[in-house]
Write a structure and sequence with these properties.
single chain; mainly beta; binds zinc ion; 6 strands; 1 helix
Length: about 80
């Protein structure tokens, strides 16, 4: 499947800066939009956050990153 030419989150067209993804303290340039691991939308660098999690890369859009990054509320005490 070919990534779309516009971000599925903000609808902007793929261009240089939008394809420079942050990975930890570095930057990864990609030729196309990356896909969120959770909701599977293709998103630009401003909408997608790149993390090192365990031994691999994880690509999460803002919405999923917020859900993932925030500590879950403690349940049952
Ligand atoms: Zn975007
Ligand atoms: Zn997502």
């Amino acid at each position: 499947m070919t990534p779309p030419s516009t971000c599925q989150a903000c609808r902007r067209i793929a261009s240089g800066a939008l394809l420079d993804y942050r990975k930890g303290s570095g930057v990864v340039h990609n030729d196309a939009f990356l896909q969120c691991d959770i909701c599977e939308r293709f998103a630009c660098a401003e909408c997608l956050q790149v993390y090192d999690i365990l031994s691999g890369y994880d690509f999460l859009c803002h919405a999923c990153a917020q859900a993932f990054g925030n500590p879950l509320p403690h349940r049952g005490h």
